[in-house]
Each structure stands twice: as C-alpha cells, then as structure tokens.
Amino acid sequence: MVEVLHTPYPSELRLRAPVPLTQHPAAVYLDSLSPGSVSTMRQSLDAIASMLTNGECDAMTLDWSKLRHQHTMAVRAALKRKLAPATASKMLCALRRVLSEALRLDLIDPLDYAKAVDLPSIKPSGNLRGRALSADEISALMSVCQNSDAIGLRDLALIGILRGGGVRRAEVVKLELRDFKPETGALEIRLGKGGKDRTVYLPDGAISLVLDWLEVRGSEPGPLLCPIRKGGKIEYRHMNPDAVLKIVRRRAQQAGVESFSPHDFRRTFCSDLLDAGVDIVTVQKLAGHASPVTTAKYDRRGEEVKRRAVKKLGF
C-alpha cells in the first residue's frame, strides 16, 4: 500500500466545488488514454491524491493546480521507497501529464508548473524484472489443467494463448470468439496497449488447446474466454485481468512451480523466439512493443546464449 504523506494542510488541496470534466485536468488526461489504460492510470492518480491528502481526496476531488514542487517531490520520494522503479515511474508520468493538462487549461502558473514537474527520474535497479519459464514448468502447469471439465479446458486455452501468443493479460480478456481464426491460428488483438491493433499467430499446439476449449464453449458470439461457475455453467461475459492473475497463481501452486506473473509468459515468448533465431523486429511486432529496445528488455535467456554465440567464432 502507498503511504500517506501527512502534508500539513491536506484540506487545502481539495477542490472547493465540482468543475466540468472538460476543465478538470485529471479527467482531460484520462480521456486522452486508450480504454485499456484508463483503469490503471486512474488508480495511480487516486493513490497519489490519497497520499497527498491523508486519504481525503481521490483523482477527481484533488485540486491538481495547487500542487507545487514540495508536493511532487514528496510523492516521488514515497513512490521510490515503496514501489518498483517501473511502477513508480509510471505513476510519476501520470502526475506530470495531469499537471501538463492543468497548464494547458490555464489553471496553474507556468513557473509553478515547471518547478512541480522538475523531478529526477527514478532509475531502474540493475536486476531485470520477471523471468522466463522453462519447458518443464510449462508442462507441469498444463498437466494440472488436463481434465475434461470446462475450467481445465479453459485454463489450458488461456495458457496456450499467453505462452504461444505472448499476449498481455489485459488483451487476452478482451478477445472475442471472432478474433480467433483456427485455419491460420491468427488472433486479432484489438486496441492493445497504446490503442494499437495487431495480429499474432498461435503455434499448432496452442491452436489445439483453444479448439478443445471451443468444443465446450460452443459457437455463441462473445468473449473467447469466459468465467465458469462452480457447476460448470459458462457465463458469456468477459473475464477481468485480475481473474487471469488468480488463475495463473492457482495453477502454479497446484503444479509446484515457483511463483510467476502472467507477464512472464510474454518474457518466455520473446526469449524463446529470439533463441530460435527470429529477428528482433519480428518479435517486437508480435509482442506489440513500440520499439525493439523494449523487446530486448524481455530477453531472459541468460548467460548460456552468450556462451553458445561465442562458440560459433572461428579461432
């Protein structure tokens, strides 16, 4: 949990009266985001507002135009202490963007704005986040799902898509039945991160897992992956990203696999493709990264790949 900053006069940062959404810097900023990013960034702004006001305000009741350098530096210090560098940097980015909207709306003095956003960046630690899963770990995960009930088949299809397509959990829950093309294994990712569409292709093994699930799910239009009640009744509505996290954690525990996140399937996807000799630009496009530099950060092949590379040198 993000700490409270105990600012001297938190009530002074509260909006005195509601303002139109078109004049509210946080609302304007959130409206500029892709649908998949709004919830995450709203939570970030809510957390910052709560920190600054001892829990009195959220993103919509804080008067962002009253923030000054001392406020933003206190937020930065607290985020740096409590959160991973990438998460803290993302939240600071949201803070800067809201203040930028306040400037555009003529709600904050340009000099006060310049001082408030003049924050040192939070540098990532030397250790890479996350890990790649081994083939044995993936086999163990699949083994604990292999039964004939609907939940097992759904979870196998989920693992197949996460591992075989490198899809983000926020993307996998938005997939519709029409987005899957069994003839080619294509999955149409609509409005992924950054609001971008892309096509990924599942390997044959993952296609089979999805087809097995569809035998149970049926051809009812709607979400490709669905919640299932205890009695096995399928609900034709979208799952949420947190449900994917819970499924992965439960299956990891059942399989005796060291804890990992759904995003580690993306790291495994990228690492395995690079290890197979696929060029980094193609991996970048499949993963939906904006730059090959981001893709390179997903490489978890370790020292062995470097050792094998040197073996190819003539001497």
Report helical residue fraction: 40-55%
Q: Tally the beta strands.
A: 3
- Supply the CATH class of the largest domain: Mainly Alpha
Low-pLDDT windows of residues: none
Give a written overview of the molecule.
This protein is mainly α. It folds into 2 domains: about 10-115; about 135-300, hpI Integrase, Chain A. The chain has helices at about 25-30, 35-50, 70-80, 85-105, 110-115, 135-145, 150-165, 170, 205-215, 240-255, 265-275, 280-285, 290-295, 305-310; strands at about 180, 185-190, 200. Strands 1-2-3 form a 3-stranded antiparallel β-sheet. Helix 2 packs across helix 4.
Give the arrangement of secondary structure elements.
Blueprint: H1 25-31, H2 35-52, H3 69-82, H4 85-104, H5 110-116, H6 135-145, H7 150-165, H8 169-172, E1 180-181, E2 186-189, E3 198-201, H9 204-217, H10 241-255, H11 263-275, H12 280-287, H13 292-296, H14 303-311
Antiparallel strand pairs: 1-2, 2-3
Helix pairs in contact: 1-4, 2-4, 3-4, 3-5, 6-7, 6-10, 7-9, 7-11, 11-12
Could you provide a short overview of the structure?
The protein has 315 residues and is mostly helical.
Provide key terms for this protein.
315 residues; mainly alpha; hpI Integrase, Chain A; 2 domains; 3-stranded antiparallel beta sheet; 14 helices
